[in-house]
Amino acid sequence: MKKYYLKVITKTIILLGIHFLSHAQVQPEQLYCENRENPIGIDNVNPKFTWILSSQKRNEKQAAYQIQVSESDDFTSKLIWDSEKVESGQSVRVAYAGPEVSSLKTYYWRVKVWNDKGKSSPWSSAAYWQMGILNPSDWKAKWITMGYEEDTLRESPAFRKEFSIQKKVKKATASITSHGLYEAFINGNKIGNACLTPGWTSYNKRLQYQVYDITHMLKEGQNAIGALLGNGWYRGALAWGDNKNIYGSDLALLLQINITYADGTSETVGTGDDWKTHKSSIIFSEIYDGEITDARKSPGDWKNVSYNDNKWSPAVVENFGYDNLMATYNEPVTRHETFTPVEMIITPKGEKVIDFGQNLVGWVQVNVTGNAGDSLIIDHAEVLDKDGNFYTENLRAAAQRNIYILSGKGPENFEPHFTWQGFRYMRIRGNVKDISADNFKAVTLYSDMRKTGSFTTSNELLNRLQHNIEWGQKGNFLDVPTDCPQRDERLGWTGDAQVFFRTAAFNMHVDNFFVKWMKDVAADQSDDGSVPHVIPNVLGPNDGASAGWADVSTIIPWNAYMLYGNKEILKNQYDSMKSWVDYMKNHSNDYLWNTGFHFGDWLFYRPDDDNDGRAAITDKYLIAQCFFANSTQLLIRAARVLGKEDDVTIYTTLLKNIKAAFLREYVTPNGRLVSGSQTAYVLALKFEMLPEVLRAQAARRLVENIKSYDYHLTTGFLGTPYLCFVLSEFGYHDLAYTLLMQQTYPSWLYPVTVGATTIWERWDGRKPDGTFQTPSMNSFNHYAYGAIGDWMYRELAGINNAENPDEAGYKKIVLTPHFTNTFVSDKVKEQNNSEALTEVKGSLNTYYGEIVSHWKVKGKEIIYNVRIPVNTVAELHLPLTDINKLKEGGIPVPDIGEIRAGPGKTGTVLHLGSGSYTFIFEK
């Protein structure tokens, strides 16, 4: 018995030792292909591989890697590419360089690495990707449309077909797209978990298809496949007026199943003239107005086999072609959180209203029982009015209403298919009896991007602000970055997207999301370089070229490169970037761009800022000139990264002329701007429009302006994102923090103090007296002002990417936390009852791993915990002049050989390798 226990103990010690050794050395753990885990249906024939390394040791770097790609997941046979050992530290976006790949084929890959001491990791676990349809000729399915005449409500059509399988299936793949939105089914089960497919693109130029693994859904014998279609973005009403059929008037389906059998044979099943079509129970469906479902009109169990479809019409084959089809690169819209009602309210008007406690985007699931013909009418709203009544005026023409007419056949479940709502409150009407809160659940919808960042502090109001920023992002990232999710708009406004991009990239992995959308920016850009106000462009050819909006074409590609190391987006968007800069140049007079329509500093603090020019306290052409310079600067940087030296020379000269024109037109000899607003000084300083000798005095003028407004901001969409950054850069960080902590209008925290759960479109969407701002433009879920999140992550938590483009994507991390924050005004402190922060924790998952920056004040000491991912380095900037007073892990830093220290602008700079660190010093 003793020998037995001795063997067990010995074996345990050996296993523990192996486990420790495996974690002590660097090894690849998370594997991504095209920035996604095990993607299905990609059409990049040279996909990019990324792997995240882990190690328990500090200062670990990759020195070499080896990738293998196989058609088998065991890699013992069918190996098609072996990179062999490559001496390189690159672990992000390494391109496949093997033999030509085939449509719809699955490939497996693995990687191992060597550290800088020559030690090899074990092979990673196998990951895989599946190709999409690479050639138009690989499409065997045909486009089909309804074989009957629609009624005036344009109901959703159903399509179906049955087919037989007589062999064992090894692999089956479905490739699907549509004109309109689709849901597809096999044997009664929905294919995939995506919603609102095929997503929204500039359909006439770029139409996505989705690929699904349906192997487990097929069975030997008879199988049924079906689909529902809805109007969606393709032919539904969008924007204002009777703006329908923007991309076409037809609804159409293209569906192809590729089956490989165990015996090696294959078969293709696709849409064609052997399909049947019929009206469904969805008798009306529009994005803005909701859906009407009449369960009495259900065709029955049409999604399953043995259904009698003799009364169905034959589908009609159409020749819409395949040339504009492309695989889906970004994450699909899926269901996420589920909310149960917080309470059921009887309003002063006597209406029955449910509160879900969170302004969210998605729909309500209903479970009810009633008689045939009973109806349930569900309206949606973001807020209750001052008296506690249901408020829908700010929805403008959008009904946001779902109607369900019961069949009377026992318990019935309803939810929308091809629409969504933005709401916190739901009003119940109709004649279904015995309705209670238990009959309803709210389900959120947003693009399925993985969460990457977190930000928490010792201040609960700031934590709630961060919550609101995140929920504003969730609610408006439905395949495109919409401005708002509830009224008759829900469009991809370019200005909103560009100001929020960096904040979005902290909260979620938005790389693929914006790569997809930016391709539509380029696709819809006019031949003369003008960039539309909204993308995809549904407003028309003349609605574009506004400063700060059209600059999305340069701002997002550059920031995406810097934050993700994504050189591909610079390559893909470079012509678009250049075309926009050339547009501004061609519409300028002696390099002064003072023509055309501009939104200006949209929705700044004044209530009468409806763009009529009278309320514009910041000259719109001054703003335009600043963005003209900024986009030119970003184009120069992109050209330098891409090796386009001729363009670097040409546009460097242009930039000098743009700034000279700015000085001639908008700056007095003493450095005063013709517009003395906060936004004017912020943009002039942020975009370096002033000579260096004039910048300090300009910053002082900005400070005086803020003080003159009783320590409040007055900025709009274009000035707000940069305001706190400019203050911090010029030594006024305490004032920036003061603005952040203001609780009275206008401020970021004012909406929080009155119960907001998302970011508002206006600083005072709900006024202090409980009334609302103008209902024509008053969204309570509008993320643009949430751009302050970028400053919170970068200045309070201190997480920054390096400014050197060669170290993009957090290959080098710059940590600049502000440990103490005191108000510049005792009056403001007293007004807001706010204290200095005592704790901030920020984290960010990058392509190299997780960065953590967590500081806490404890008595007279500051405890600062840092985590640096493997294969990266970091600069830590501390406001400390005496390095001997700094300890790490209880040891004075000068005694730790692996940490290099030196003087910095504001104290000490530490140079760190990967690993976890705990620093302690006196504040």
TrEMBL record:
Which residues belong to the signal peptide in this entry? Answer: 1-24
Alphabetical keyword list:
Hydrolase, Signal
User: What InterPro entries does the record point to?
Assistant: 6-hairpin_glycosidase_sf (IPR008928), 6hp_glycosidase-like_sf (IPR012341), Alpha_rhamnosid (IPR016007), Bac_rhamnosid6H (IPR035396), Bac_rhamnosid_C (IPR035398), Bac_rhamnosid_N (IPR013737), Ig-like_fold (IPR013783), Rhamnosid_concanavalin (IPR008902)
The UniProt entry, under Pfam families, shows: Bac_rhamnosid, Bac_rhamnosid6H, Bac_rhamnosid_C, Bac_rhamnosid_N, Ig_Rha78A_N
Tell me the ranges covered by the Alpha-L-rhamnosidase six-hairpin glycosidase domain, including all copies.
Answer: 450-795
In its UniProt record, a GO molecular function of this protein is:
alpha-L-rhamnosidase activity
Catalytically driven reaction(s):
Hydrolysis of terminal non-reducing alpha-L-rhamnose residues in alpha-L-rhamnosides
Which ranges carry the Alpha-L-rhamnosidase C-terminal domain? Answer: 805-887
List the GO biological process terms: carbohydrate metabolic process
Enzyme Commission code: 3.2.1.40
Q: Which residues form the Bacterial alpha-L-rhamnosidase N-terminal domain?
A: 167-337
Which EC main class describes this enzyme? hydrolase
Alpha-L-rhamnosidase concanavalin-like domain ranges (all copies):
347-445
| Name by which UniProt lists this protein | alpha-L-rhamnosidase
Q: Which organism is it from?
A: Sinomicrobium pectinilyticum
